[in-house]
C-alpha cells in the first residue's frame, strides 16, 4: 500500500529556497556527481519535515548508460538523494551531530513506485524518525509530478572521521 505524503506537495513553493546548493554544500560533503540536491524548499524544524529537490536534465551522468535510448533514473540515486535530505534534517534538528559525518547506514521497507525520466524535478521528503547518537532512522519519500516514485526508511549512521 502506498504511503500518504508527509505533507501536501502542492502546498510547497519550490521557488522559496530555504537552502541553496552552495548552502547545502556547507552542510554535506558530497560533491560533483554525488551532490544530489539543488535546493531545500521546505524545512519545518518543529514538525521535523524537510523537502528538497533536484532538477534532472537529459545530460545527467547516468542517463547515457541507464538505459540507452530511454534514460531511467537509477533507484540507488533516489536512495542517495533521500539519505542526503535526511542528513540535512538530522543536522538541523540535532546540534550534537551538526559537525559530524552522517553516513548511509541502511534502508528498510524500500519500494519504488514509478519511473523517473529526465527532464524532471524530483522532490525528496524526509521526516524525523528515531534519533540515536550512532544510528538514526528517517522515513523518506520521493515525488515527481505529484506521484510518489520512492518510499522507505533511511538509516543514518553518525561516524567519526
Can you offer a commentary on this structure?
With 161 residues, the chain is an alpha+beta fold. The protein has one domain (9-159): Hotdog Thioesterase (Thiol Ester Dehydrase, Chain A, Roll), CATH 3.10.129. The chain contains two helices and six strands. A hairpin with a 4-residue loop joins strand 1 (39-44) and strand 2 (49-56). The radius of gyration is 15 Å and the shape is globular.
Give the tally of structural domains: 1
Rg estimate, integer Å? 15 Å
Q: What string, H for helix and E for strand, traces the elements in order?
A: HEEHEEEE
Structural class: alpha+beta
Annotated CATH homologous superfamily:
Hotdog Thioesterase
Mean pLDDT: 94
Total strands: 6
* CATH topology descriptor: Thiol Ester Dehydrase, Chain A
Report the biggest beta sheet as strand number plus sense, adding barrel if it closes. 6 strands, antiparallel
CATH architecture name: Roll
Termini separation comes to 39 Å
CATH class membership:
Alpha Beta
Please sum up the structure shown.
The chain has 161 residues and is of the alpha+beta class. The chain has helices spanning 21-27, 75-93, and strands at residues 39-44, 49-56, 101-112, 120-127, 135-144, 147-159.
Amino acid at each position: 500500500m502506498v504511503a500518504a505524503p508527509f505533507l501536501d506537495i502542492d502546498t510547497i513553493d519550490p521557488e522559496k529556497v530555504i537552502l541553496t546548493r552552495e548552502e547545502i554544500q556547507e552542510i554535506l560533503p558530497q560533491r560533483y556527481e554525488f551532490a544530489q540536491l539543488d535546493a531545500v524548499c521546505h524545512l519545518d524544524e518543529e514538525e521535523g519535515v524537510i523537502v528538497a529537490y533536484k532538477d534532472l536534465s537529459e545530460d545527467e551522468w547516468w542517463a547515457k548508460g541507464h538505459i540507452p535510448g530511454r534514460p531511467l533514473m537509477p533507484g540507488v540515486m533516489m536512495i542517495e538523494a533521500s539519505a542526503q535530505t535526511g542528513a540535512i534534517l538530522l543536522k538541523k534538528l540535532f546540534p550534537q551531530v551538526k559537525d559530524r559525518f552522517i553516513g548511509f547506514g541502511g534502508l528498510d521497507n524500500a519500494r519504488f513506485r514509478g519511473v523517473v525520466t529526465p527532464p524532471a524535478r524530483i522532490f525528496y521528503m524526509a521526516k524525523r524518525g528515531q534519533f540515536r547518537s550512532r544510528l538514526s532512522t528517517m522515513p523518506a519519500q520521493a515525488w515527481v509530478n505529484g506521484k510518489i516514485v520512492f518510499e522507505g526508511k533511511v538509516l543514518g549512521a553518525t561516524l567519526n572521521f
